[in-house]
């Protein structure tokens, strides 16, 4: 029977054949022959629009530094990174550039020539080369979002195919995601008028997608969520609760004012303090953090494949 005829069977037979094709296919490999590891890094805060033709919105704080720096260390460790980031937030390989690189790094020497200013040339060169290398090797794909609607829809689009990677996939959910939103159908279409007096608005709760991600979208993936608090007294307790409630492999707990200095990685067995240490040449906390995650993920892959 030729393959065309075969695919014309009943829907159930076709489904079974498709399933059998994918489940028996050899796993995808990296160029170096090792199993392909993919991490989805989410970064930056989501907005909640108050009007469909949005003039005003509620925002969640995140500069995107954690996600951008972590992406660099994951790429260095050989992971392919899907970087799901809020438009306008920090980008991988750009941390040494000034705020407005286009205007601050270049000068116009005559009518047609533009050159990089000497003091920024090293930083510009490194950013361009490292970013291009990562993209060329297929290790970096950047996808932007702004609103909570875009973020969760794109996350789901990414998660479904990543499910096929089983334990080789990581979700590193550093984005600061809105807990409340205005459902699209009940949102004002046009700019809300201030002449109508004080604004009363009831926000609906955004479903916690961590449970859905773990249960339905990517049940075998290594899942890392974050917990941010401003009160250090409740931080570890909340991180522990999130670990159990959403069945995460790790929760990275951080306090707003010290988030660049230290984080605590909470797992079911231990709580590990990870610190940056300038004197020891560790100038970003993401460096030891990603090292620890790669170690734990390798062990997880090994135990899952036994
Ligand atoms: O970007 P920086 O300035 O460098 O700062 C980094 C950071 C402090 C933002 C980051 O390290 C961090 O902690 N991010 C998570 C912020 C947070 O508190 O998220 P949350 O409590 O809203 O959510 C906790 C987890 O649930 C997150 O992993 C989030 O992706 C997830 N979530 C949240 C809401 C929701 N409806 N569904 C979710 O899945």
From TrEMBL:
**Extent of the signal sequence:** none
Q: Which UniProt keywords apply?
A: Coenzyme A biosynthesis
**What molecular functions are annotated in GO for this chain?**
phosphopantothenate--cysteine ligase activity
Any one Pfam family match given in the protein's UniProt record, by short name = DFP
Give the DNA/pantothenate metabolism flavoprotein C-terminal domain ranges: 169-275
Q: Does the keyword Zinc apply?
A: no
Q: Which SUPFAM superfamilies match?
A: CoaB-like
GO biological process annotations for this chain's record? coenzyme A biosynthetic process
Per the record, the pathway is: Cofactor biosynthesis; coenzyme A biosynthesis; CoA from (R)-pantothenate: step 2/5
Say yes or no: keyword Aminoacyl-tRNA synthetase present.
no
PANTHER family assigned: CORNICHON-RELATED
The Swiss-Prot or TrEMBL record describes its family as follows: Belongs to the PPC synthetase family.
**Protein name per UniProt:** DNA/pantothenate metabolism flavoprotein C-terminal domain-containing protein
Originating organism: Ficus carica (Common fig)
């Amino acid at each position: 029977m030729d393959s065309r005829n075969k695919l014309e069977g009943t829907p159930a037979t076709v489904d079974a054949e498709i399933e059998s094709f994918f489940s028996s296919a050899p796993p995808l490999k990296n160029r170096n022959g090792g199993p392909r590891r993919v991490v989805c890094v989410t970064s930056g805060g989501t907005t909640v629009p108050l009007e469909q033709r949005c003039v005003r919105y509620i925002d969640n704080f995140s500069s995107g530094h954690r996600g951008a720096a972590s992406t660099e260390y994951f790429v260095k460790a050989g992971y392919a990174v899907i970087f799901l980031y809020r438009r306008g937030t920090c980008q991988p390989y750009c941390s040494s550039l000034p705020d407005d690189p286009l205007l601050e790094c270049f000068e116009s020497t005559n009518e047609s020539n533009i050159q990089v200013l000497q003091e920024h040339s090293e930083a510009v060169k490194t950013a361009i080369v490292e970013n291009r290398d990562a993209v060329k090797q297929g290790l970096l794909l950047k996808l932007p979002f702004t609103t909570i609607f875009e973020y969760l829809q794109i996350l789901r689009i990414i998660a479904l195919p990543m499910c096929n990677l089983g334990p080789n996939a990581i979700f590193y959910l550093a984005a600061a995601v809105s807990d409340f939103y205005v459902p699209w159908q009940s949102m004002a279409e046009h700019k809300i008028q201030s002449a109508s007096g004080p604004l009363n608005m009831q926000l609906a709760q955004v479903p916690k997608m961590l449970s859905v991600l773990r249960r339905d979208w990517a049940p075998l993936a290594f899942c890392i969520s974050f917990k941010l608090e401003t009160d250090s007294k409740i931080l570890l307790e909340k991180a522990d609760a999130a670990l159990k409630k959403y069945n995460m492999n790790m929760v990275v707990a951080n306090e707003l004012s010290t988030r660049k200095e230290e984080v605590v990685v909470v797992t079911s067995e231990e709580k590990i303090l990870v610190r940056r240490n300038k004197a020891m040449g560790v100038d970003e906390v993401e460096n030891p953090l990603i090292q620890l995650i790669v170690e734990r993920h390798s062990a997880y892959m090994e135990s899952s494949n036994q």
